[in-house]
Design goal:
Layout lengths: L1 H13 L7 E5 L11 E7 L17 E7 L2 E7 L10 H14 L3 E10 L9 E10 L26 H13 L4 E9 L7 H9 L4 E3 L3 H9 L4 E10 L10 H25 L1
Helix pairs in contact: 1-2, 2-5, 3-6
């Protein structure tokens, strides 16, 4: 993997991806942040050596580099998931490449369903902690110790300083921002009523199919990370409605301007 990371890094440097300060991973229905960027370089995932290719139709599949709020940023417009058939090492490979390119901080977004029924569709949740229910670890492979400490401490996986700054920005701009625990499952099927009850019992506030692998690898690489979930549906096991993926995407797009504002203001001030 070390050689692959270097080959990919060298390719991107040749394409103009030079010394990014902040990495951003955009989730389902959350692809408009690049509209705010002065783009200096961009490349489709399927042109990047050793990169997976986004197979989900509503993920754009581009890596973008440019200026945003006075900082050099590298943005994944679309991410990878285990449910697409990729391994945990595939899903997190871009984080390792972004770190090799030079990022010092990572911001992540996703669309999720609420377990905590005080969290309503169209609202945002700052992730304070997570539960990994994906059945594996992106660090569980031979030779991981060559890329960082094998036994990574996860007592505080999300950066307290950046999270506090995001909460302050939300308050200043009157954006409703919950804080809670995100459970990451394999998918792609949605949860049953019994599964929603189980998730509530174990302490989850929201559930989705991404983010946790990337956060684990960011911690492995000592990169401070913050993540925001857009609540796109509500998992009330006593009144569970069928979920339409187009409605989830529409709800994510509706809430996206608030998430973009939070990310932009944070980037400006870090």
């Amino acid at each position: 993997m070390t050689n692959q990371i270097q080959e990919t890094t060298d390719y991107l440097k040749d394409k103009g991806f030079y010394a990014p300060e902040i990495g951003v991973i955009l989730g389902t229905g959350l692809g408009k942040l690049p509209d705010e960027i002065e783009i200096l370089a961009e490349v489709s995932y399927n042109h990047i050596p050793h990169f997976p290719t986004a197979t989900v139709e509503f993920h754009k599949g581009k890596l973008i580099f440019g200026n945003l709020e006075g900082k050099k940023v590298i943005v994944m417009q679309g991410r990878f998931h285990l449910y697409e058939g990729y391994s945990l090492q595939d899903v997190t490979f871009p984080v390792r490449v972004m770190e090799r390119l030079g990022i010092k901080k990572l911001l992540v977004s996703n669309a999720s369903g609420s377990i905590n029924l005080d969290f309503k569709k169209g609202e945002l949740m700052l992730i304070d902690d997570h539960i990994n229910l994906q059945g594996g670890s992106p660090l569980a492979f031979k030779g991981v110790e060559k890329l960082g400490e094998r036994f990574v401490d996860m007592s505080a996986p999300y950066d307290a300083k950046m999270n506090a700054a995001i909460e302050k920005i939300a308050k200043e701009h009157a954006i409703k921002l919950h804080k809670g625990v995100y459970a990451s499952v394999l998918g792609p099927q949605l949860e049953t009523r019994a599964e929603y009850r189980y998730l509530k019992i174990i302490g989850a506030d929201a559930v989705g199919m991404s983010t946790v692998p990337e956060v684990i690898v960011a911690n492995h690489l000592n990169i401070p990370v913050s993540a925001i979930s857009v609540i796109t549906d509500e998992g009330n096991p006593d009144d569970l409605k069928p979920v339409n993926i187009s409605e989830i995407i529409a709800m994510a797009e509706k809430a996206e301007p608030d998430m973009i504002l939070l990310f932009k203001e944070l980037i400006k001030n870090i």
